[in-house]
Design brief:
Shape: elongated
Number of strands: 9
Structural class: alpha/beta
Order of helices and strands: EHEHEHEHEHHEHHEEHEHHHHHHHHH
Number of domains: 3
Number of helices: 18
CATH architecture of the largest domain: 2-Layer Sandwich
Amino acid sequence: MKLLICEDEETTRHALRKMLQGSQLGIEEVLEASDGVQGLRMAEKYRPELVLTDIRMPGLDGIQMAREILAVHPESRIIMVSAYTDLEYLKHAIQIGAVDYLFKPIQMDELESVLENAILQSRSLHRKQELLQLVERQEPYLKENFVKRLVSGQFINLSDALQEGRHLFSLSGQQSYALARVFPGPEIREQFVRYHERCQEILSSGCLGQTETFCWREGEELLALFLFEGEIPAAFRTGLSGLKRQMEESVKIGRLICLFETATSLSGIPHVYQKLMHGEKEKEKEKTSSASPSSGVNQSLLVSRIKEIVSSEYSDPALTVNAIAVRLHYTTAYICMMFRRETGSTPGDYIAQVRMLHAKHLLQDVSLKFSEIAALTGYENENYFSKVFKKYEGITPTEFRKIRCEES
């Protein structure tokens, strides 16, 4: 905590410093200035939390100095010192934001009391600023969490969504909404991730007539929620097509696909989200996604991506359904629901089945120990590997190897 004393009378200035030297107020540094001009320079350089200043000083008086300090550092606590005849000056001081004042001659108990109060205000303000900064840093994550819960239908009551959403967005329950989904063809899927930020800027430009836009990522795809006051403008469709062209011109890596759905109420958002992600429009575009090697039928982009991750990382013990969900920016529950809906099994079962497929291949090499095979298929514990193997294959790894050896 720093205190700046601005006083043109040297004896008074030194007396104030001496009074504060033995105090227990927690003031770590006391700075001195002999006039308002010097005080302003020192305030700019040292940014003191507390400023104790005389009102009447040559050159730049305490009122003007305080006004200029507060314009740059509004968190500073200004305390004015004056003679009894300076009441009009004190009124001006209070109007510009001084937190307290002292009359000359200054008494030690009064000085300590005023400074103690100013210190408490400064610390309270500092804590409030820290909390505001924390909230600002967390706001994007809070918004994304809210939107993902909203589109996935996790709010049971509309009133709950409105109550939480009005603190993050300008939700009133009287708006119209639109969801847009932007994704590339499979040949440029990995490259597109590098351009997410630029595409978000284009989608959020406000040229569609929306009052607010929030964009988030789901794997390699981009999604955007648009809020409109009243009805969605008739030009929304053509405007979105224009934004699609802008994004394609900006990323210069190939053709992008841009789908959208609209909702007339907040409660309709989960339905249009599901329609956008897995409805008829998605089926028309599934040609762009990879075919499942095991079933020979087209899978959605989400399921195809999950299978790609499992296929390339099955040997990593850290590969779990939750880890995949975090990477693709979905909830674990949503991934499990969509994977089961399209494949009939859970992502956890699929991970285990892929691992067992590779384990059976490795077990045919008699030079490999069971512990090595376990490690190569993503299991850190040999006993657990054996337990999972028996669950899915009906026999132990030892029995499987023996049968294969006898067959050969």
